[in-house]
Amino acid sequence: MTDVLKALSRFAAEAAYDDLPHAIVHEAKRVLLDSIGCALASISSEKGRLCIALSQRLGGPAEASIIGVAGKVSSCNAVLANGELINAMDYDALVIPGGHVSPYVVPPVMAIAEQRNASGKDLILATVLSHEVAMRVTRGMSPMIQVFAEGPDAQRYEWTTPYGGSRFNVGAAAGVGRLLALDTQRMTHALGLAGHYTQVPTHGKLSYSVPMSMVKYGTPGWQGTGAIVACYLAEMGYLGDETLFDGVSGLWRFTGSDTWMPERVLPGLHDEWLFAEQQYKPYPCCRVLHSSLDLFYRMVGLHGFTPDDIDSIRVFGPQYCEKPHLQNRIILSAIDAQFSAAYNFAVAAHGVTIGPEWQDEATMHDAKILAFMDKVTCEVHPEYTRRPLADRLMSLGRIEVTANGRTYTDETTFASGTPRPGFEMDDAALIGKFRHNARRVLTPAQIDAAVDALMDLENVHAVSGLMQHIVPAHGSDAT
């Protein structure tokens, strides 16, 4: 058994709520608030409706809730829907290293917390542990984009083609196992099993798949069921893979990494919380567009451009901008809409309310918006090929807007919603996002109650009570 697996298992089994710094407790509440809000927004999407219908069809014992839907299904089937709902609009939080970790780890811990009637403190601890373990395992693997120096003022980048969210399932099992009170030995078996109950690493396939499928870069809802199965089996005495990370065929290899760097996983465990660097999305689209969208909104605010005023928009962003799905101009579904640079800037130019409205059918078929897309181009910011960035959370953006015969330019270093001074999304903004996302599903009174409960989660005695605030009132449902 590797030292990494032993240490992570002990951490997950023995950590206590009182070990968490106040700032980490607060961040857990914010992550849960944002994840639930994104799920509520996604109920109006086609992908959301289909995933809810499937989970209800599979049914099972009434153990856990689908966010925003009346009634209960089995824990696994609640996870199946909730994982897909959280990520359906690409509006959910992300972290480095990793990316969209929350849709893979939040639904399993929420379902088991509800099923076992755990406390708010229990849910907070499981949420933190699941993210932390997922991110630490990921830190030991190849990043999605690898950068190589080619001289004093030049660098190139390569893609880890089979990248994906498979490794996050180890984190999901850590959170679920903690809620089940697994001891260190059984936790080891649970994490070892969870590593095998993962999806194949499909993130790279997404980038070249135009038109896009609803799968996107993976199926967090389906994978999250594996974390629950792994923990229940370990609880029963089923033996997992105690050598999960070992050798040339370890987890790192079969989840798409080119290398395994165990020395990067454990330093700072208990003291340095990777979980603290959550990035929250103000716009329902791929994160690489956000820095330039910030600039565009600022420019429109200063100059009052109308769509007719604008002759062209030239967008510069991170390396990912060159990928086919970011360059796509054919909008057949909400998934195409989330990634197309031309579409998202066209929506912004037309003043569509920020939120699920960007992916409403009427918006995606608006002839004026679709025609405006021809004015938008997107390319890689030149600094990405010159030298390493000063901060790993940097997301350089530049925009050139030609309007009324004049070209306006602006640049930025971070996207709003990044935990860096001047770019954070504070509690008021995050709550405002939640309120807007929830309003199609919940009553104003329910929204108020949900916000109060989530932001005071450490004082919630039973998660089942929290869930009452995030499903429709009076037995109706949004489907």
From TrEMBL:
<comment type="similarity">
    <text>Belongs to the PrpD family.</text>
</comment>
<dbReference type="InterPro" id="IPR036148">
    <property type="entry name" value="MmgE/PrpD_sf"/>
</dbReference>
<dbReference type="InterPro" id="IPR005656">
    <property type="entry name" value="MmgE_PrpD"/>
</dbReference>
<dbReference type="InterPro" id="IPR042188">
    <property type="entry name" value="MmgE/PrpD_sf_2"/>
</dbReference>
<dbReference type="InterPro" id="IPR042183">
    <property type="entry name" value="MmgE/PrpD_sf_1"/>
</dbReference>
<dbReference type="Pfam" id="PF19305">
    <property type="entry name" value="MmgE_PrpD_C"/>
</dbReference>
<protein>
    <submittedName>
        <fullName>MmgE/PrpD family protein</fullName>
    </submittedName>
</protein>
<dbReference type="Pfam" id="PF03972">
    <property type="entry name" value="MmgE_PrpD_N"/>
</dbReference>
<dbReference type="InterPro" id="IPR045336">
    <property type="entry name" value="MmgE_PrpD_N"/>
</dbReference>
<feature type="domain" description="MmgE/PrpD N-terminal">
    <location>
        <begin position="7"/>
        <end position="256"/>
    </location>
</feature>
<dbReference type="InterPro" id="IPR045337">
    <property type="entry name" value="MmgE_PrpD_C"/>
</dbReference>
<feature type="domain" description="MmgE/PrpD C-terminal">
    <location>
        <begin position="283"/>
        <end position="456"/>
    </location>
</feature>
